[in-house]
Amino acid sequence: MAPKDDRDPETPERFSVSRRAFLKTAGVGSLASAVTAVGVAEADAQPAGARALGPGDVPVTLMVNGKRVDLKIEPRVTLLDALRMRANLVGNKRVCDRGACGACTMIIDGRTAYACSTLAIDVQGKQIRSVDGLAVNGRLHPVQQAFCDHDGLMCGFCTPGFVMATVALLEQHPNPTPEQARKGLDGNICRCGTFVRIMEAAMTAKGVARG
Ligand code: FES
Ligand code: FES
């Protein structure tokens, strides 16, 4: 004998209708709150007299590796994309593009920064250094040379970011302890597993002078 079906034949339809109605109402509610939140945020973010920029191209002037770079880009363009796509400075790589791996690490006013998560327009007037500017007249920077000597790379995608992080580390701590070196490089990831050799390179290159 077939088991008895205790369900009310009306229930699924009644439930689904009411759920649909609920979702519609909830959607309208969230949209309304989102719109209100955006309105409030915009009102907060734009003080009286402030001039909105974009969404089209605007002039942006950057100081990169000691040279002036004049660009016309949308305000939403990151420093990494601005340099790679518009200024032919392609040394630093775009890997995760979300501030997680460090491949795009540059030095801005003496401090490391993820260029994929920094708006170009926000770093006007600052001194930006990318890996492209390290070698002088074809001679590698001592940190680049140390990476070569210690075979501190495999695929090389992480290398420009690690090199820049190492340069910043050594400028701050010319003779870093292993702990300081680990801390200085902990914003960078090598998926090929060369971290031990990178550390060797960083420790060998210690004492490198600023610049
Ligand atoms: S590409 Fe910028 S942190 Fe990974
Ligand atoms: S050398 Fe390939 S990710 Fe580091």
From the structure above, extract its key features:
alpha+beta, 5-stranded mixed beta sheet, binds FE2/S2 (inorganic) cluster, 6 helices, single chain, disordered N terminus
Polypeptide structure, described:
The protein starts with 10 loop residues before the first helix and ends in a 7-residue tail after the last helix. Helix 3 crosses helix 6 (195-204). The relative contact order is 0.10. It contains six helices and five strands. A hairpin with a 2-residue loop joins strand 1 and strand 2 (67-73). Helix content is 39%, strand content 12%. It is elongated, with a radius of gyration of 26 Å. By secondary structure, it is α+β, with helices and mostly antiparallel strands. The model is unreliable at 1-41 (pLDDT under 50). Bound molecules: FE2/S2 (inorganic) cluster (FES) (2 copies). One FE2/S2 (inorganic) cluster is lined by residues 153-159, 190-192, 194. One FE2/S2 (inorganic) cluster (FES) binds next to loops.
